[in-house]
Design a protein that fits this description.
alpha/beta, Lysozyme-like, 2 domains, two-stranded antiparallel ribbon, rod-shaped
Amino acid sequence: MALMPGVTRRLIPRNFTRGGQTAVHGVLLHIMEGTLDGTDSWFRNPDSQASSHFGVGRDGRVFQWVDTDDRSWHASGANSTWLSIEHEGRGGDSLPPPQLAATARVIRWMHETEGVKLQLADTPAERGIGWHGMGGSGWGSHPDCPGNPIKRQRPAIIAAARGTTEETDMELTDAVKLPAWGPASWPKDVGLQDGKISVNTALGSTYGHAQRSAENSAQLVRDVQDLRAAVADRGAGRARASGLMTTPEPSGSVAVELAQLRGELGAGLAEIKGSLGVLVERTARTDADLKQLRADTEGSARGLQHEIDELKRARWPLAQIGSLLAVGALIVSVVALFTSN
């Protein structure tokens, strides 16, 4: 069911084909050759064999007589593929501002719910906003319907339809027609088979999808955070395994203590180095003294040998020779003692 909200619903019980609207090529504009109320009575007459989806009065009132899912009897061969709007007035009349604005509002609704194109159509092969007489004999032979003034007003009607933003009194139980992509995207959804959905159901479905999207978005954020943490842990493990982890810089107090320790170690090493220098110097002096003592002893020994030789030649007494030998042995013992130390 496709009923326009905010209009007077005057659904007729006869003179239409239920479910007979097989396609929507556009909408045809008609002239009533009478009044809105008189046409309402005529469409209810079984003898009329005529109807229209909508009727618009010169004061801006809008009647809907036939659901847009059903086929109205308005233009013979065009009935199954074109929607219809009848206008209060007579041939040669133009639409006053209230009637033009109301017609634009109906066409805007047809555009949104039935896909009617907001463009001019002047032949049966075109799509958009047409007029009854353009179909010739195949459409009932009404060349002057709705008349040239209304035909010339179609660009103004289309412009108003594109700019219409006024709100309508839509009820929650009203049905709205879904765009073609709805049933095509979810062909197994039984609730979308007829391409329509109630306002109440549409609002509930929209809320449900919005809530699910919000929950999925929150979960996605958590998953990304967990992934980042896992990547960071893995990178740190690899760095530790490959010895790439750097040693953190010491704090200020630790740095001061390390500097003091380095200074103390440097002073201790310098003191040890100085002591070693003194020891080496003393060792060198001891070696020099020993060499000098050895040289003096050897000189004394040579002098003693010389004296012994002289005594031999002078034939000293044996007592004197014995004394000299004893002195020599004593000197040799002293030398040997110093040499061993």
